[in-house]
Amino acid sequence: MRTLLFLSLLFIHFASFAQVSVEVSFPSSEKTLDGRLLLLISNNNKSEPRMQINEGHDTQMVFGLDLDNHAAAKSMLINSTNSLGFPIQSLADVPSGDYYVQVLLHKYEIFKRKDGHVVKLPMDRGEGQQWNLAPGNIYSKPIKITINQKVKSLVKVVLNQTIPPIEEPKDTKYIKHIKIQSKLLTEFWGRPMYVGAHVLLPEGFDEHPDVKYPLAIFHGHFPSDFDGFRTTPPDENLPDTYNERFKINGYAKIVQQEAYDFYKMWTGPTFPRVLAIEIQHPCPYYDDSYAVNSENIGPYGDALTYELIPYIEKQFRGIGEGWARFTYGGSTGGWEALAVQVKYPDEYNGCFAACPDPIDFRAFTTVNIYEDKNAYFYESDYKKTLKPAHRDYLGQISTTVQDGNLHELVLGTKTRSGQQYDIWEAVYSPVGKDGYPMRIWDKKTGVIDHNVAKYWKENYDLTYILKRDWPVNGPKWQGKIRIYCGDMDNYYLNNAVYLAEEELKNLTGPTYDGEVDYGDRAEHCWNGDHTQPNYISRLRYHRMFIPKWVKEMKAPAEADVSSWKY
Question: What is the model's pTM?
């Protein structure tokens, strides 16, 4: 009996040391390194491991740790004691087998902010805050290894690859590209900061040099160029690839055909002659800033509204008045379209918010941040039921709120993952004592901080703000708010829209006189078109909302609403 007990204890002792460790060496050209060091492990070589990480059920494994002023001449050991993983939390728990391994360093830079805080964050380098694509990040080539958890092993990798710079888009006859240094953001961040836009010029712009145009402002994620506009027919050689989300073949060709069709409409005789822009405003936390002022992000709302937009209007003969501007967008862009209308009621004359990020924090996806105690689990005395975060149109769940947040925690501590929950936190939260955003909930446990939730409510809960400020701004908002969402939105965003609609319909003195509409069984990015499937309507934001706004536009009696309608 004693012998069996001794052997069992010996096995346990041996197993605690019998695990894989990875020794990482850095280029001699580097001196000191700040950033998130990511170990990527995949059970297949369909693509590089760095391209196979997500929060869903089909993700491969990632393990992360911070480098803080690390001497590049010194190698770094990644093991089960100093790293955190997703979806497997510890390297010690990786099943034995054959794998492909890669290591990447997502670099941070030092920011000395106006508020006195010094923080280390990833600067966007033209890729839209994507850790696996960011130019300048260093990584190793994938290697195949065998992990045997009964045998202690050491894997050595060298970060001898660098992600190259991204070429900026070139101007064409119709599309121009603008980038300006923002005085407001430069002052806040303590270093030069830029915002920009892709500008689509109306047909006849050069032939009508005296005409000034209204401005259509499309909000969305980081656009590499003006999206959905193509002057040539679809590429005949495109592969007939199956699209898993929409369950159809050849979706890439459909996308190109829609873009070409829009070009023909835009240049045709009946389409409204306006300037259309897609804004580029990545920040150190995400691929865009959410277009509002924030303690952590800085005065992006003011920078876009009072610096970038007037600059564009001056450069391209915009009318330059609030009645001649409107906003539209989907998802993040849907929230932004509504947010800027709410925050700047005199500067915009209407918003079309499709599938917006949560506009009522009583339904922050599937979390009520004011009443729930925990963001990950439904309240119960005995049973822990996880809250869902992503579903398909049939309600099949692929991701939970906990999944998304643990995935982000591995990619970056201190709200630095560059992912969805972290940017919400970075925009909406007050600054913590360490200079980083205060957590709305504990990333590991899901326990909600209701003091932070109160700050969110007063500053960024759009439904609450509309109701609170309606006695003052109601006449400015009346008839300008239009919201669209599929009733099977993949991220449960329709739940917040239901609550917002209820509040809007109850407003008086004046009534809101807007529009809220839902797509039956429609998923994310549905934008109000009942005549087309979701995979088509999501490609038609420009052609849908620009004519709609022009037709319904409310302009002052003295406004010029005819010279640009040639």
Answer: 0.95
